[in-house]
Amino acid sequence: MQPEIQSTLHNSAATEHRCYAASLIVVGRLSVGDQRLQAAILRRGIELRLYSPAEAVQWSDQSIEAQEHPDYALIELSLATQTQEIIRHLESLAEQADPSVVLRGLFRKMLRSLNVDEGNAEQLSRTLFRLVHEDEWRTSGLDENDAYHIDDGFDLAVTGVWGTRSDAVRELRTFLEEHAAGDCDVP
Predict the structure, then answer these.
(1) HEC letters along 62-127
(2) CA–CA separation, 126 and 48 (whole Å)
(3) Cα–Cα distance for residue pair 35/69, rounded to 1 Å
């Protein structure tokens, strides 16, 4: 294969793989880095109530099936029944995941949730506000005022001071689309 074609295919595959990792779609074999990223997104997502512990166990089951020699922590996670135990196993799998990429993965999950049910928009804006005070946000380079503005937008709409709930939902969606997407198409 010609080097430029091979490079193009490699770059395309790498972009596609980052998209899958950010959206927690398990396809074929995962590199250790992708597995770490997915585990980190799931761990933080459970803590933020974006994912359920059952989703993490299902992810581990799928990951085990896709690998010839799965990490022992995946097996332990698959057998875990308590939330704290699940989080502990995800932490051991998530070592050295890039916090800013984890944040983008969380934004992607929030966007998917918003697209399914706009009724949870206020809860998602509160989660966004909560993330401002976490390490992932501090390393991301994002302006914390954006999150404050979005969260306040819901409160101001309810009191009739500024805009409507639809305006606040639109601002939340715009923020999530802009920061979750990166080089991936938003579903």
Answers:
(1) HHHHHCCCCCHHHHHHHHCCCHHHHHHHHHHHCCCCCHHHHHHHHHHHHHHHHHHCHHHHHHHHHH
(2) 10
(3) 13
The residue to which tokens 């074929």 are assigned: 28
Tokens describing residue 150: 């979005």
The residue type found at 156 is L
d(CA 43, CA 59): 12
pLDDT at position 141 is: 83
- In 3D, which of 167, 147, 146, 145 has the Cα closest to residue 156? 167
The structure's pTM equals 0.78
Kindly state the tokens that stand for 27: 């396809």
